[in-house]
């Protein structure tokens, strides 16, 4: 890396690098570059994967990358837009809606500056149910106690889409809005029939629940209703959670969205170039392969798969050098 940030530049980093960009100062001056990654709740997949990437990509004292727990896709996009975060993980659907001002962001304005660093891995939609609840289909959720995940999460958005695909809405279930670990605890105590989670498998909250409760199932999100959802929302793909991923649970067909690492166009190109170069280094490859079951799915060959927003110029430079972009 050529050069370091000044203390004044560090202060600007907390504002999403916007001041530095406006003033046209060098991207890499005196002092370390701090780059935060907004992830998700500690019981999900974003948080541990974000920690692995941050530790591997950091190159102190020049570049300090940190991962922090957050409320997931929507909250991360909003934080990037406001300058509270330099980057974050987001579902591909949420990133697309934010950049185009559609879907969840309809009437809220476009997040014009949202840019892609990399597509990471597929996020599977889990519909976790207690065996005692006898829920075999999404349609069976009617009248049941169901957590749709917390406000600001991409899971909440997708859970509503799934319910609608089977002719249901929030009003048709006894809805709660909990993080997956909280929903799992409530299910273990008999106070929850089902909960949605969108993320890479396996996730610790569900693994622990399957191992310590009287039994869980995963409900298939498949068939004509799922096909219609895919036609209407192109960011969904067919997916399957393998048998044995969770104790006592067989193979389950479902839908998935891409987990993407996004940032702001205001972040200097030189910083993003170093970040993306570090992401696809041998050091990070080893950390991802050893550190999390989803790590092996994070591949340079699929870094630009399912792209619905512009690629950051700094990332674009790397991908052109790597032969992934012309």
UniProtKB/TrEMBL annotation:
Pfam families: NMT1_3 (PF16868). NCBIfam families: TRAP_TAXI (TIGR02122). It comes from Chelatococcus albus. InterPro entries: TRAP_TAXI. It comes from the Bacteria. This is TAXI family TRAP transporter solute-binding subunit. The lineage of its organism: Bacteria, Pseudomonadati, Pseudomonadota, Alphaproteobacteria, Hyphomicrobiales. Coiled coil: none annotated. Gene3D superfamilies: Periplasmic binding protein-like II.
């Amino acid at each position: 890396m050529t050069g370091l940030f000044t203390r004044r530049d560090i202060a600007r980093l907390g504002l999403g690098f916007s001041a530095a960009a406006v003033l046209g100062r060098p991207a890499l001056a005196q002092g370390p570059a701090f780059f935060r990654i907004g992830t998700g709740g500690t019981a999900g997949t974003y948080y541990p994967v974000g920690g692995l990437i941050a530790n591997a990509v950091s190159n102190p004292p020049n570049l300090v990358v940190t991962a922090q727990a957050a409320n997931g896709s929507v909250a991360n996009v909003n934080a990037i837009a406001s300058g509270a975060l330099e980057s974050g993980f987001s579902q591909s659907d949420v990133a697309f809606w934010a950049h185009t001002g559609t879907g969840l962001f309809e009437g809220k304005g476009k997040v014009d500056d949202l840019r892609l660093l990399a597509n990471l891995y597929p996020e599977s939609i889990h519909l976790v149910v207690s065996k005692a609840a006898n829920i075999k289909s999404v349609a069976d959720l009617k009248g049941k106690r169901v957590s749709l995940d917390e406000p600001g999460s991409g899971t909440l958005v997708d859970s509503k889409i799934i319910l609608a695909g089977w002719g249901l809405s929030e009003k048709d279930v006894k809805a709660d809005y909990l993080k997956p670990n909280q929903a799992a605890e409530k299910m273990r105590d008999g106070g929850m029939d089902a909960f949605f989670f969108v993320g890479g498998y396996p996730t610790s909250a569900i693994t622990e629940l399957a191992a310590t409760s009287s039994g869980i199932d995963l409900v298939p999100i498949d068939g004509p209703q799922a096909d219609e959802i895919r036609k209407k929302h192109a960011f969904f793909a067919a997916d399957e959670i393998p048998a044995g991923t969770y104790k006592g649970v067989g193979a389950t067909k479902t839908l998935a969205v891409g987990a993407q690492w996004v940032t702001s166009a205001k972040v200097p190109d030189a910083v993003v170039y170093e970040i993306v170069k570090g992401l696809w280094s041998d050091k990070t490859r080893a950390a991802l392969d050893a550190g999390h079951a989803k790590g092996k799915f994070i591949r340079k060959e699929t870094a630009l798969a399912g792209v619905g927003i512009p690629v950051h110029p700094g990332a674009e430079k790397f991908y052109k050098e790597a032969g992934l972009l012309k």
